[in-house]
Amino acid sequence: MKYRHFLLTVVFLLAFEVKGQDNLTRQLEFANSLFSEGRYYDAITEYKRLLFFDSAGIYQYKVDYRIGECYKAGAKLDDAIKSFSQASKFAKNDAELFDSKTQIIRSNILRKTTERAIQLCTELDKDERFRTKMDTIIYWKGWAYMFADDWANAANTFAKISPEHELRKLSEQTDKEKVSVTFAKVISYILPGSGAIYSGKFLSGLMSLGWNVLAGYWTINSFLENRALDGVVVGELVWLRFYRGAIQNAGNFAVEKNLEIANKSLRFLQNEYKGTKP
Amino acid sequence: MVFLFTFFSAQISFAQQDSDSTNYFSPNNRLKFGSYLYKDKDYLRAAEEFKEYLKFSYDDTVQFKLANSFLKIGRYTEASDNFKTLFLGSSLSEESRLMFFESNFFLNDYNFFRTLTEKEIYLTEKYSREVDRLNSITYLFDNAKLPDENLLLKPFSDSAKSQISAFFLEKKFPKYRSVTTAVLLSTVIPGAGKIYTGEIGDGITAFVATALSVYLSYNNFKNDHQFRGWLFAGLTAFFYGGNIYGSAASAQIYSARIRFNFESEVKLYFEQRNYFLPRIDY
To answer: How many domains, chain B?
Structure first.
């Protein structure tokens, strides 16, 4: 009799527990459906509700991870990183830990905190548990370099995966297309306007050269006519103004040109690149 | 028999718990979840849960929390409307009245706020001093005619009075710079208007640049360089006109800076002291 009573109680309790879990699963499905529909705000609410009622923490990792994805999709990257960090604490195995850590890296790349992303990649790189995931770690490190506008390092990093890697070629090409800011300034010291022409601003470069020739003529002419004060004032106020302006402009144009080249590559990554993106 | 009785009792007991444990969207569970979100400072989501709960059951504390959630997320009109529903027949009436005024104060329509304080129906006995303080603060934030200094300082404690009195005097006698004076000064002596607005370096540079371009124009005409003479004459006109315009802009910027610094200082002072309001929460 005692045995039957005990058995019945156990069956009741088990049934109750299973029913509880069923509710949690249903809630997870509901939240997931909102996530699939792109209703990220509502999805977060339902994931949070699930976490609140999941007193045993059965879905803790899965839900924190999904909340992170929702925040990431809504460009709330600080919150996304917090949620992925929270998920990493509840990872049940190395695969889950790796996924949450790479999501933190990807969110850092998107947030443009690329130094932190590279640092996290290096940490993962040193972790023996992730030996088999080296290519993935290198891949995200390369992306971090691209977002840090360090295309040379990005090319070297992708080359470690494969010399034929599509992103290696893109990074290398971007790096080659970029102009040297220092060189643009130095040639402008020698011939005003040449730095602007080197950076692709032909009209600005020619105009700068013209102004410098004219102001130089006025200055020299004043000295030749024994009007020294005129020469000094025109030289200081007009010629030097154009000369310094040409050097400054050369630097600015070179920076602008590099930005255009980098943006073109980033636009390609955003719109045309078919591989995994941060 | 005992076994059957235990079985049915357990069934009934489970059935009662069941509705709550299986339905995460039951009013009670919404309240629990809402309170958790409220504690977690996720006020927007908490407000939604409280709203749903209140559709099934009325509770003035929940109503207060709902209104306070709106206040916390800066939805002041909704906060004000929800606090208003607690004015009558609630043990939180006095607190709600204060929070109602607080919500309206943060709407930044200070004229409207002062009108509200005049309506007796909204007044609170317990927190009348707090509301008076908010009322006094409004005069420091907008361009309304300032009341008598003693009247404005009355609701504040002695320790705060000296600082608020300093704010009052700064508001009453602002150290602005006149645009007309700056323009006239620069018309007579190029650069003088800039010096008047505190930009001494700019003023001296403007004076030197104008004088030099006048000299260069004169000297080039004298030496029969007509083109360069006209070029520097044009440059002189540009410097002279530009300086007058710059002086007017500088006077406006100076006054705007004084106004901005004053407003920022006053705001920071009161924010750091939570506008001398008590922290009310449940």
So the answer is: 2
